[in-house]
Amino acid sequence: xxDTNLTFSxxxxxxxxxxxxxxxxxxxxxxIKLNENSDVGTxxxxxxxxxxxxxxxxxxxxxLGAPLxxxxxxxxxxxxxxxxxIVENLDKGGWTSDYFEEKPRLISQYNCPLLNLPYIVVxxxxxxxxxxxxxISQTNACLSFLGKALGMFGKNEVETSQCEELLCEIYDxxxxxxxxxxxxxxxxxxxxxxxxxxxxxxxNKLENWFKLQNGGCYLVGKSFTAPDFHLYEMxxxxxxxxxxxxxxxxxxxxxxxKKFKNGFEALEENKPYLESWLHxxxxxxxxxxxxxxxxxxxxxxxxxxxxxxx
Length: 310
What we know:
Blueprint: E1 15-20, E2 31-35, E3 38-41, E4 54-59, H1 65-74, E5 79-84, E6 87-88, E7 95-96, H2 98-109, E8 119-123, E9 133-137, H3 139-149, H4 157-182, H5 189-212, H6 226-244, H7 255-266, H8 271-274, H9 277-280
């Protein structure tokens, strides 16, 4: 057994970003200002305020981490972010990450055998006692947990079930993109077209979902729910793919999804995150991906480390 007064730490394997929502910020603390009420800290910035309840850990890309980060920002909840880099393995070839060495330690130290990225650390104790510290893994589990914790998982049993259904549907949409970005293909326009065709099966379902509800900025009810944030991220990635490969207007046959995306972007709650470097300067996918492995999107080539500015 480990000491019950241990504090969660990533032992320096990840870049820590502190996100705080308040006024009167001391500029000497190396924070990047988002707006007059919020700020996102730079790499390993020092913040002399209370430790936040939530820490979100993921690769140093948007990917599955983006919806979780965006939810907390929309709710104006202080939190920390851990960003793990994947880098070239110069000795053996291929890729490596400090996360792979840290993962077994975290599993053992915090009794979390299911640990994977993304994960959320929940610490509700000012004393950081281990019994008050939880780690939640698996994407939909993380989205569901934050949704419930932030009041973004429906107002009743029907809406909660809808949130659960939609999270699964959107993950199917993501899996199609993941197969293209990381699968056995050459990343060509032909494969991008096939990806779009396959993704349209899920996109048409989601278009019809909005059609039945007469459109709007929210998938469920009249306020934010967890699926909104994952859907927004996937629409952004599919739209960028169509622009990058010149596949035409992504939203041509998806007017309700276009209305959702435009409306969601315009909501005041989302502006701090969408205007930050976490959204603008991180790539959709990791360095080995065949699409959007650099911001832009653009393509990262093995060895071009000077281009990985984030």
